[in-house]
Amino acid sequence: MTPSRLDELLHRFQDLRILVLGDFILEILLEINPAEESSSQNTGRRVHQIDDVQRTVSAAGTVTGILGDLGVGTRHVMGLVGDDADGRELVRLLQEQGCHTDGLSCHANITTPLSVRPFDRLAGGMTGRYPKYDRRVRQPTPPRLVSLMAAALDHLLPAVDAVIVLDESTTRDHGTVTAALRDLLAEQAERHPRVLFWADSRRYVRQFRNMIIKPNQFEAVGRTHALPGDEIPLTDLHAVVPRIRQETGAPVFVSCGIQGMLTSDPVLTLVPPVPLQGSINPHGAGDAATAGAVAALCAGATFPEAALFANLVASRAVQGIDHPGSVTSESIHDALRDWLGVNEFAAAG
Predict the structure, then answer these.
(1) Strand, coil or helix: what is 273?
(2) What is the pTM assigned to this prediction?
(3) How far apart are alpha carbons 317 and 277 in whole angstroms?
(4) Which structural domain range is residue 67 located in?
């Protein structure tokens, strides 16, 4: 990819219309100042002092945020949130991003997913992280709510260029994306070949059909737990990706960590990563890659180009200290220069 080709793709983003369907998580970042730590007068236990509170939307909300940073013109969201203060705050934050939120359904019997992440403002980075506190959906999604989303999706599909499905749930039929909704999405993908369908899921990514999927290297081989520094050998991925391609009936992208991004089409191709320096925060890297790849494909990128663009976007997102970093057209050009510096052959591609 050349800088002029990158500009060509970026320029087309303003005309894109993308729907992000899935699990939106209200994330609360607590900036702790250890220098102001005190003790409780009643119990004598330590009291952490909070300097700042930041609220954002992660998971599917990270995808919408990155799409906005990239200049995607129209972003629709669809999912389930609670009819409570946290749900209303989540909707407000998405509207503040510039998203169309008519597809978000607020219901009293739905739990708004929540993640509270304290961090040490003096230490910063991964070393400054305190344990985080999550509230996840603990009850099955009522079938009637799935039917409501199905009707809303049917109405919206003619007006979008792509549907990104982001499934954060690790418990079957909990959260927005249930088995019934996966089946419906497979049918819709067949009925709407003009619309690009893309799915990413923590636990069930290989159960999607008729749409592009993006497992990470561990999900691709069915491994549910990985330790820092673990990598799946490329020979193993080269063996399994064609089988996944045949199972799902659509192209496959595999994020391979420090090895880059593997794409199945038109031939199995590994696109090297962008070289990184300094400390990084991998939180949200996969969601950033999804946003970048889908935007690029909708703009006319080839599959290897989309894999490279995903790497470029993710490389800038992981440079945020406590949440995904800023992604701009300038930073993407900087990333491409870094990438071309160690991949000379690519200038002709």
Answers:
(1) coil
(2) 0.93
(3) 13
(4) 3-34+52-348
